[in-house]
Design goal:
- With about 550 residues, the protein is mainly alpha-helical.
- It is built from 23 helices and 7 strands.
- The strands form 3 sheets. The protein has a 3-stranded antiparallel β-sheet with strand order 1-2-3. The chain has a two-stranded antiparallel sheet with strand order 4-5. It has a two-stranded parallel sheet with strand order 6-7.
- The N and C termini lie far apart (about 85 Å).
C-alpha cells in the first residue's frame, strides 16, 4: 500500500492555523494537528500546548515509545521543507496572525515567511525579556555581554534607574546580568551550533540503545521490593508492639522508597508498556502512598519540557512560600495553575526568611501533594476518554483504599489515643522529606533564564539541572534522583542504568562544550540555600527601592527637589 502523501505547508500557513486556535507542532518534518488528541493525552494537555509552533521531534522522541510515535501519525496534516524555526507557543505568550490579515492569503513568498518570523510569536502574557525582546538584534555577542556585566551591581539600590517608579528596572538589571552569564557560559544559540548539539545528542541516544541501557534490570527491582517489604513489615511489627515512633519511622521510610519506583513507572521505565507501568504506578502511588500518579504525570511532563521556567514549570512555583528567582517579584501568571502568583504582603514576609524556612517547609511537602492529588482527581483534570479513561477511577479506588488502611486501620484502630496518633502522623509524613529535598536540589540552584525559543532541548536540560555526586552504595537512598541530568536528557532510561549512562553523558558534554553540573550532596544543598538567600536579599533591596520612591517628593522620578 502506497504511503499517503501530504501537502507542503508554508510557515505562514502554519502560523495561520495556530492563530485560528489549532494545536500544531512539527515532528520529523511533518505537520501535526493534535486538537482531537488534546483531551485524551495521558500525559496531560499542558505538555502538548508547550510544543505548539515548535519542532517537537527531540522532545517527543525522548518521552514516547516507538509504538506511541507510530500512533501519532494519524494526526499528520502536512509537511515542511527545510529547517523549522520555532515560534513561541501561545501558552507562553506567542502571538500569531490569522491568514485573513494578509492582503493575498495565497502569497507564501519567502518575504512573507520572513515577516512572519520577525513579527509573530511575540510576547504578550509572558514577561518581557530584557535580552530577547530588545529592539536591537538578539544575536549573542561577547562584547555586548561584557558591557552588560560591567553595569552597576545588583546589590545596590543605585542600580535602579532614575525614571523607574516601581523598582522594575532593578529586576531588569538582574535578569540581564543572569542571562548574560548564561550566554557566556553555554554554547551559542545560533542554528548551526544548536543543530550540531542535537545531532550529537541523537548519536548518543543510539549508542545508549546499542549498549542496552534502555533495558530494565528486573533483578534490581527484586531487591527494591524486598526492601519495601521489610520496611512495611517492620512498621506493622513495631505498631503491634506499641512502638509507635519507630513504626512511624519505618512507614515514612517505606513511602520514601516507594516514590522512586512510582517515578520509574510514570516514565514507563520499568516494562516500557503504557498500561502496565501505569497500573504499577497507581498501585504504588495511590494504593500504598495516597498520591495520584496521574497528577504527577501531568505535572512532571510539563516540568521536563519547560524546566526552571518561572512562568511555566510547576516544580519551582511555590509562591507565596518560596521563590528561586527574582522574576517571581512581578506577580507573574502561572500557565500551569492558571492563576497569578501574587507577590503580596505574606509572600514578602516568607521570601525574606526563606533560607531559614526551606527545610521546615520540605518536612510537610507530602501534605501539599495530597492536596494536588485530590484536586486532580476530583476536578477530573486527566483524560476522561481515550485509552486512559479508566485510570482516574482506578486511582480514586486506590485513594479510598489508602485512606482506609492508613487513617482507619492504623491511626484509628491501632493507636489508642489522639496524642500518639498525632505524633505518628507527623513523623510518618516528615520522614520522606529527603525526596523533596532531592527534587529541589536538582533544579533550585540552576539557571532560570529565558534563553528564547531556539535553545535546543539538550542544552536547556543541562543548563537547568544538576547531578549529585554520591557513592554507589548510597544509590538506594537517592533512588536515581541523583542523576537528574541524565534523566532529563533521556527520561525513559531505567534508573538502575543511569550510573552507567553518566559517563557517556559526561563525554557528550565535553564534546559539545556544555558544562555538566555535578556537586556533592552537601555542596549542592549549600548552593540551593545560597540561591534562596540571594533571592531573599534581592527582595529586601527591591523593597528599599520601592520605599525610597514612595517616600520621595516626586513619585514619578524618585527625586527630592
Amino acid at each position: 500500500m502506497a504511503e499517503k502523501t501530504y501537502p507542503v505547508l508554508s510557515r505562514r500557513q502554519i502560523e495561520g492555523l495556530i492563530a485560528d486556535g489549532r494545536t500544531i507542532f512539527i515532528l520529523d518534518q511533518y505537520v501535526f494537528k493534535a486538537d482531537p488528541w488534546l483531551k485524551y493525552h495521558p500525559g496531560g494537555d499542558k505538555a502538548i500546548l508547550h510544543m505548539v509552533g515548535r519542532d517537537a521531534t527531540v522532545e517527543i522522541t525522548a518521552f514516547h515509545s516507538p509504538e506511541a510515535r507510530q500512533q501519532m501519525n494519524r494526526y499528520r496534516i502536512g509537511r515542511i521543507e527545510g529547517r523549522w524555526t520555532n515560534f513561541i507557543p501561545p501558552i507562553q505568550g506567542g502571538k500569531f496572525r490569522p491568514l485573513s490579515d494578509d492582503v493575498d492569503a495565497g502569497d507564501d513568498s519567502e518575504e512573507c515567511d520572513q515577516t512572519s518570523t520577525e513579527t509573530t510569536s511575540s510576547p504578550s502574557s509572558r514577561d518581557v525579556s530584557p535580552v530577547f525582546d530588545n529592539p536591537e538584534p538578539a544575536i549573542r555577542k561577547r562584547r555586548a555581554a561584557a558591557e552588560l556585566l560591567s553595569s552597576p551591581s545588583t546589590s545596590s539600590v543605585t542600580s535602579v534607574e532614575a525614571d523607574d517608579d516601581d523598582g522594575m528596572s532593578y529586576l531588569d538589571t538582574i535578569t540581564k546580568e543572569k542571562t548574560t552569564l548564561d550566554l557566556e557560559k553555554y554554547p551559542s544559540l545560533d542554528f548551526a551550533t544548536q543543530d550540531a548539539i542535537v545531532a550529537k545528542y541523537r548519536d548518543l541516544d543510539q549508542r545508549i540503545k546499542a549498549e542496552g541501557l534502555y533495558k530494565c534490570n528486573y533483578g534490581a527491582y527484586a531487591i527494591e521490593v524486598t526492601r519495601y517489604s521489610i520496611l512495611f513489615g517492620l512498621a506493622l511489627l513495631f505498631l503491634h508492639w506499641g512502638w509507635y515512633v519507630t513504626s512511624a519511622l519505618c512507614l515514612g521510610a517505606f513511602w520514601h522508597q516507594l516514590v522512586f519506583t512510582a517515578h520509574d513507572a510514570g516514565h514507563m521505565g520499568i516494562t516500557h508498556g503504557f498500561h502496565t507501568d501505569t497500573v504499577i504506578g497507581i498501585i504504588i502511588a495511590d494504593f500504598l502512598g495516597g498520591l495520584s500518579i496521574g497528577w504527577w504525570k501531568r505535572n512532571h511532563n510539563v516540568h521536563h519540557l519547560v524546566t526552571n521556567a518561572p512562568e511555566h514549570d510547576p516544580d519551582i512555583e511555590h509562591m507565596p512560600f518560596m521563590a528561586v528567582s527574582h522574576r517571581f517579584f512581578q506577580s507573574m501568571r502561572s500557565t500551569y495553575y492558571d492563576h497569578v502568583m501574587e507577590y503580596d504582603a505574606f509572600a514578602k514576609i516568607m521570601l525574606r526568611i526563606q533560607p531559614y524556612t526551606y527545610y521546615i517547609l520540605l518536612l510537610f511537602g507530602r501534605l501539599n501533594l495530597y492536596r494536588l492529588s485530590w484536586d486532580y482527581l476530583i476536578m477530573g483534570r486527566g483524560p476522561r476518554k481515550g485509552p486512559a479513561w479508566w485510570h482516574r477511577w482506578l486511582e480514586i479506588t486506590g485513594q479510598i483504599f489508602f485512606w482506609t488502611w492508613y487513617f482507619y486501620g492504623i491511626l484509628y484502630l491501632s493507636i489508642p489515643n489522639n496524642w500518639d496518633r498525632f505524633v505518628f502522623f507527623l513523623i510518618s509524613h516528615m520522614v520522606p522529606m529527603p525526596v523533596h529535598a532531592q527534587i529541589c536540589l536538582s533544579h533550585f540552584a540552576m539557571s532560570t533564564s529565558d534563553m528564547g525559543p531556539h535553545e535546543s532541548f539538550p542544552q536547556k536540560m543541562l543548563r537547568t539541572t544538576m547531578d549529585v555526586d554520591c557513592p554507589q552504595w548510597l544509590d538506594f537512598f537517592h533512588g536515581g534522583l541523583q542523576f537528574q541530568v541524565i534523566h532529563h536528557l533521556y527520561p525513559r532510561i531505567p534508573r538502575h542504568n543511569l550510573r552507567r549512562t553518566q559517563k557517556l553523558v559526561q563525554e557528550f558534554c565535553n564534546d559539545v562544550g556544555i558544562p555538566y553540573a555535578l556537586y556533592g550532596f552537601v555542596d549542592g544543598n549549600k548552593r540551593v540555600v545560597g540561591t534562596l538567600a540571594e533571592v531573599s536579599r534581592q527582595a529586601a533591596i527591591l523593597a528599599k527601592c520601592q520605599k525610597v520612591i514612595s517616600e520621595s517628593d516626586d513619585p514619578i522620578h524618585g527625586h527630592h527637589h
